Amino acid sequence: MKFNRLLLVLSVLTLSACATTDSSNPKDPYEEYNRGVWEFNRAIDKAILKPTAEGYQAITPDPIEKGISNFFSNLGEIETIINDLLQAKFGKAGRDTGRFLINSTLGLAGFLDPATEMGLEKEEEDFGQTLAAWGFDSGPYLMLPFIGPSTARDGIGFVVDKTALYSPYDELNDSQTEWSLRALDLIQTRAELLPLEEQLEQALDEYSLVRDAYLQRREFLIYDGRPPIEDDCEFEEDCEDW
C-alpha cells in the first residue's frame, strides 16, 4: 500500500519532466501519453468497473443506493473541512462542520441528508484547491493510471488528501473492512456516473470531452462557482462594441 502511494507521488512529480511534449494544446502538452493512459483506464472500466456498477445498481434498491451515496459523501466532509481551514475559509468551515454533525447524528451516520433540507448545501474542497489558493499553478493536464483525469497540482493534492490528511478509514483496524468499504465507495461512485455514459459514447472524441469537462469543473470549484471572465477583447474599443 505504501509502495503504491509512493509510486503515485513520484509519477505525478516527475511525469512533466520526462514526458515528450506532443500537443498544440497548452493545457495538455502530453496529449499522446495521456491518450494512451485514457485507453488503458477505459479498457479496465469497460471490463470491470462499469459491469460491476451496473450489476450493483440493478440489485440495490434506490433508497439504499441513495443512503450509501449519502454515507460516503458525509465521510468526505472531513476532507472538505480540513481544506476549508487550510484555505482560511473559516465561515465555510463552520457551515461544513455543521453539515457534517447534523448528518452524522440526525442523518443516522450520514445515510440521510437532513442538512441539505436545512439549507446547508454540500460543497467540495480538496488539497488541489488548497494548493491553488496558495498560488500554485495547475501544471500540465495529466491522465493518471487507475485514477483518471488530473493535473500535476491536483495529482499531488490527491496524494495528500488520501495519505497525509485525516481519513475515517484510519480508525479501522480491520484491513478487510477497510478495503470492503473502499471498494463499495468506488462502485457507488462509478454507478453515479452511469447516466453520463451515453453522452460520453456519443462524443466525437471521448478523451477531449473528459479533459475539457474536468478542467472546467476544477476551475469552477477553485473559484467557488465564480470563475473569472476571460477578456477576449484585444483593444478597448473592441470591447465597447459588445
TrEMBL record:
The keyword DNA-binding does not apply. Keywords: Lipoprotein, Signal. It comes from the Bacteria. Pfam families: MlaA. Residues 1-19 form the signal peptide. InterPro entries: MlaA (IPR007428). Belongs to the MlaA family. This is VacJ family lipoprotein. The lineage of its organism: Bacteria, Pseudomonadati, Pseudomonadota, Gammaproteobacteria, Kangiellales.
